[in-house]
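User: My collaborator sent over this chain with a note saying "see what the structure looks like." That's all I know about it. Can you take a look?
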Amino acid sequence: MIGNYPLHLIILVLLWGYIYTSWSIMGRLGLVSFGHGAFMGIGAYGVVMLWNHFGLSPWLGAPAALAAAALVAVLIGYPCFRFKIVGHYFALVTLALGGIVLQVITATRDYTGGSLGYTPERYQGGSSLYALQFSGKTTWYLIALAVWAAGLYVWYRVDGSMLRYALEAISEDEDAAAATGVHVTAEKLKITVVSAAMTALAGALYCQYQMFISPDTVSGISVSLQMVFAAVVGGLYVALGPTVGAVITILMAEVLRISVGTRAVGWDNLVYGALLVVFIVFLPKGILGTVLAHWQR
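Assistant: Without extra context I'll predict from the sequence alone. Here is the result:
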């Protein structure tokens, strides 16, 4: 029988593994986003606000939040792709998006709780499928496992589709890809919307599991940087690479929390940034990608 704490860590690894997989779906194809924390924040706050203020079940609130995240992805992505804003310029635009969403959440504290955080109202009677609130962790483990498996399924479907080859061609030379008949803007928008919606779903589930969210935990540059770090360190071009990154980030955060407590608040982000530089320079394929490459040799 697994104790509550180990099961809690497993659930976090599965949820964050899904989040990192959602980011890597577009990140591995040349669309590097530093603003995916915005989509996670939209998913998390969208569901809990609809529940607290309107009594709308997360089963209905989640699709609405996903639609909002997809709309934001289109509003940001279309002008960027239409006017060929690529590379580090696109990364800077997404970085600004993450900062804007973070500031909006903080500024509208009367509705979102601001920097103090926000808690979904407890359903009377404890566990409730309608409210997506469960007192036991076993149910959440099964939910997290199913969502994580679904994320891998989407990763494999994209990896084996013509969309992947189109985006790889676009990342090499947009003009040449367009000359061969690839609709550059449409193909980029497809993968961006899919990635954004998946990340928003993760935010909604993370909120329901933790029963507390704050701008710093589900939005902003720190969350976006964590996604980039985990995907790169685990292995951006391997399906299970982001999950390996999730194991590393969760264990690192727990070790820092237990060993030094509140004296090291924010140190994990510092470590993420430093290690990200190291891995990009010395292990660009990530841990799992490097291991598989040596095994194939």
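A starting point for your reply to your collaborator: The CA atoms of residues 206 and 214 lie 12 Å apart.
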